[in-house]
Amino acid sequence: MIAIFIPFIFGCSCHDLVQTSPDMKNGFLIRHVNVFTAQADRPVLKDADVYIQGRKIARISTKRLNIPGAEIIDGKGRMLLPGLIDFHNHVMAGMIIPWDLELLPTMRFNLEAMLYSAIVATVDMNGESVASMRKLSRDIESGAILGPRLFYCGMGFTAKGAHPIPMVEMVKGKLPWYMRMFIPDIVIEVNNEEDMAKVDKHLAAGPDFTKIFLDDLPDGSPKMKPEIVQAIVKRSHEKSIPVLIHIGRNEDVKVAIESGADGIAHDVYKERLDPELARELVRRKMIVIPTVYVFDKLNTFMNEKNYTHYSRLERETFPPSYKKAMNNPKPYIIDDELWAGYFRNYRQTYSRVIHPNVKILKDEGVTILAGTDSPNLGLATGGSLHVELAHLVEGGLTPTEALISATSTPARILREVFHKNIDFGVIEEGKSADLLLVDGDPTKNIRDTENIIAVFDKGNRLERRLQ
Questions:
Q1: CA distances (Å), 276 to each of 69, 208, 248, 407, 434, in order?
Q2: Cβ atoms 364, 275 nearer than 8 A
Q3: Closest listed residue to residue 367, CA positions, set 273, 264, 237
Q4: 81, 92, 234: which is closest to 154 by C-alpha?
Q5: Residue 401: inside a domain, yes or no?
Q6: Is residue 117 part of a domain?
Q7: For each successive 10 residues of the chain (467 residues), what is the average pLDDT?
Q8: The pTM is what?
Q9: Domain contains 73
Q10: How many domains is the chain built from?
């Protein structure tokens, strides 16, 4: 929504929120566990044994397995799920706290917080250059950096003076001069046909997808012209690169649909979603990442001044310096009238349509993917995805549908739309052992996803360490 694109430029902060554990030669055997497979034909297996060997799910059986030498894990009263996927993240960014803007971004902590929270893959919706994001992705793949699988667009495209530029300028204006000078360009401005050379150069670098910003933040600020949106989509598709468009209003959805884009980042949040547009999204097989929690958080944080409503898991995924700041809130004033008006309007209008618009998406059959837009205003990377699932349920999804929006559906989109050769997102013999073991039954109570007992990353049981 108003993602804070202050990139990670000050070096990695080492926290060791998670660590890999020693290799188990004979693997892990989880016994008597209920298994959420995330497969439509049989979503839950009752009282099963699951054997993890190496990087794979080797056996799933409703009969007792005997694997000599395997580490036994008691699954009674617990549920095993696929590892989660956050389809809207900004791993290079730092969470904004209005009364302490000098806190530095914490990229490494963001990555570890996701694994700590059983997020095994994430889609970065605007970061640094394609080359920088590719290097980070390869460092994760090689094990040089611990983190979830990373899919990225590099930097997104926007119009002159359009979102996220006003937000970044507002934040920069409140930073000390010695910090402002280090903030680089974080978006690519495209205003006319002459600027298409920038698009071609970016696409030649090989991003996983293209991101376009099409939202007036604050209200009434510039937006990209529809013909430029269409030109960027056309060029991207010629390179077999999918396109996601950040939207805010019904008119933006209409432009995204007419451009031929593959999906929209965020749901309509400034007005009630037009059901006919939702039906057209279905006809065009376009995806939507509603990011409900970030909108709820904005109202709670800026208008209600409520900083105490976080879940236990969210607090565990606050970087230590941020945790200290959150425990000591200070008065703050938004002295820019454009932004002050935006927040006032949000309380009066936007917050009333967030959950109803999710219901419209569901009722019309739109493909919904879970994403958080973290780290954002008061939004912690990691634990926030679990709260997002609860908001999707509040918006009308069943717990099972919410779980699927963070597991098998995003995995399918990564395969079919992003053209990625992946084998996570479901629990099935032979698939990658990226798994989450929890107490309880999230298919009945979605908040049970937060009762984490164990996280497996490619078959390795992670050591989770409280800060």
A1: 58, 30, 16, 28, 38
A2: yes
A3: 264
A4: 92
A5: yes
A6: yes
A7: 47 68 89 96 93 97 95 98 98 85 80 98 96 97 96 97 85 67 79 95 98 94 97 98 98 98 97 98 98 93 88 92 88 84 87 96 98 92 97 97 98 98 98 98 98 97 88
A8: 0.95
A9: no
A10: 1
